[in-house]
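Now for a concrete sample entry.
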Amino acid sequence: MGHVRCCCPQTGEVRDLVFQGFEADRDTLKYRCPAAYVGSVCPGAETCHAAGDVHPGAYGRIVRIKITEQDRRIFVPTPHGSPSWHRGYNRRTALERINNRIDNSFGFEHHFIRGMDKMKLRVGLAFAVMLAMALGHIKQGRAHQMRSLVQTPRQASG
């Protein structure tokens, strides 16, 4: 998931470093020492700073990860779980839900279709079935179910 952690050399406690943003001019992700961020004292700060040959002062140690040298699926300019990542994730469109339905409900995730023309035909038929089912739900007065692939049981008249 791209978590960056520190391990206190004195106590062995492992903590997540605090994300401080993407530095576009350096093409790096910037992380800060969690103890310095919250204002607490880390018992292993002296050893940690000596090992890294840094003198961070009150701001704490900074770790920069150059994303061009790392796996781009893990370290990206907008890290997974950050507030800006959540904002972008919430802007997704319904296209992802459609792709999920094509993969899972219509069985395209594990298929044995060979050839682009055959695949285009099958996907086109799947879209036609989805649209026909939506139209059928609307014509039957069930507009709230137009995205549903299954029909709810009818009420028994009695």
